[in-house]
Model the fold of this input.
Amino acid sequence: MAEEKRHHLFHHKKDEDETTGGYTEETVTTEVVTTAQDEYDSYKKEEKQHKHKQHLGEAGALAAGAFALYEKHEAKKDPENAHRHKITEEIAATAAVGAGGYAFHEHHEKKKDHKSAEEVSGEKKHHLFG
Done:
């Protein structure tokens, strides 16, 4: 076959440059200008994300705690497999503590972003003790 055919999934070009694969190279420089409003919006967005993650952590702690209580009940109800249920209960309780710690961490991240957003916007509220 004298003429080589190339089959591409999305484009068909007859005059492809071999070095760049048919694409031209160009350098684009952009200057990023951040304003107080952009920073405020960024902090508010992060605050919302941390709030969502905090709620997920709380839900995980609740679910793991409920499962630990269920396994504790099963250990009493099923004496043959009580050891297995006790081990599973301990694992679930550990997961509940970890999820609670994660929720606590996200709560503090949310508070930090809220405080940063207030500082950027200039509407810092004056509280008596904190």
